[in-house]
């Protein structure tokens, strides 16, 4: 018995339209449905509320005594923590696809090489938007507001989405390299929490001991939070935005290089 593969150049056996777009749409739909079944969108809604209440309630009076509107001060780091947890979910999604054999199956099919990662990033983008929207709605209930008009508010949201996508690309690549979801969580959750706590997102730089202030001031989370805080206030400055954009560009370059490596040297087996 002889098997003959269909000629993909023959219009009779090839569907019209953009192949990448069709495959991406199907895979993205699968990812969104899977995320919904596993409760990821519920977590995306609950986590910003938990973080906001966990820090706002015990610290708001202390910050008020120092002349700080804590709802306004806190919201950028709540948004950043929300998109960081989205990145952790992206890593676990990639790991589970590998463990369940989906990555190996897709590699054996006529699926465009970038479709799987593009669909996972689209799913992460949707979850990030849900988390950001939830954080901003809940922040408004606590007293947060955009004081700089529509353009600065759009910049705040666009910057937070950009950070979320960059983190998701890196986390997705680490998820493909990790041997299991537990290892993925250990790789990502602890650094995320440490960098968040040792940043100027929750407390101002003066709230840290002198030996910790240089690190708290110069690490990327602090720069991201400061930039978003200025955008929310309607007073963005290049001096604050420049280091944040440099950090974001450097992380994007590093994570895209890692993503290229994982896509061209894919570990399809656990």
UniProtKB/TrEMBL annotation:
Location of this chain's protein in the cell: Membrane
InterPro entries, per the entry: ABC2_TM, ABC2_TM_bact-type, ABC_2_transport, Nod_factor_ABC_transporter
Membrane topology according to the record: Multi-pass membrane protein
Main location: membrane
Residue ranges of domain ABC transmembrane type-2 in the record: 39-266
Molecular-function GO terms, alphabetical: ATP binding
A Pfam family it matches: ABC2_membrane_3
Chain ranges passing through the membrane: 41-61, 73-96, 125-144, 150-171, 183-203, 244-262
Keywords for the protein's UniProt record, in alphabetical order: Antibiotic resistance, ATP-binding, Membrane, Nucleotide-binding, Transmembrane, Transmembrane helix
PANTHER family listed in its UniProt record: NODULATION PROTEIN J
Protein name, as recorded: Daunorubicin ABC transporter ATP-binding protein DrrA
Native organism: Gordonia caeni
Gene: drrA_3
């Amino acid at each position: 018995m002889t098997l003959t593969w269909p000629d993909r150049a023959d219009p009779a056996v090839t569907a019209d339209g953009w192949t990448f777009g069709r495959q991406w749409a199907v895979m993205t739909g699968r990812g969104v449905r899977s995320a919904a079944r596993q409760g990821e969108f519920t977590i995306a809604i609950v986590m910003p509320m938990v973080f906001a209440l966990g820090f706002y309630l015990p610290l708001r009076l202390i910050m008020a005594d120092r002349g700080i509107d804590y709802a306004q001060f806190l919201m950028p780091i709540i948004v950043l923590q929300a998109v960081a947890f989205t990145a952790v979910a992206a890593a676990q999604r990639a790991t589970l696809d590998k463990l369940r054999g989906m990555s190996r199956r897709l590699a054996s099919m006529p699926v465009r090489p970038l479709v799987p990662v593009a669909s996972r990033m689209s799913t992460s983008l949707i979850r990030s938007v849900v988390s950001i929207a939830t954080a901003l709605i809940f922040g408004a209930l606590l007293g947060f507001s955009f004081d700089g008009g529509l353009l600065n508010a759009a910049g705040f949201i666009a910057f937070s989405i950009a950070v979320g996508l960059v983190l998701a690309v890196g986390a997705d690549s680490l998820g493909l390299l990790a041997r299991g979801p537990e290892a993925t969580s250990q790789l990502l959750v602890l650094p995320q929490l440490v960098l968040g706590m040792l940043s100027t997102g929750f407390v101002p730089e003066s709230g840290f001991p002198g030996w910790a202030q240089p690190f708290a001031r110069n690490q990327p989370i602090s720069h991201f939070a400061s930039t978003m805080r200025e955008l929310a206030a309607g007073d963005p400055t290049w001096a604050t935005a420049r280091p944040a954009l440099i950090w974001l560009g450097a992380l994007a370059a590093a994570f895209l290089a890692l993503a290229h490596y994982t896509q061209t040297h894919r570990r399809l087996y656990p």
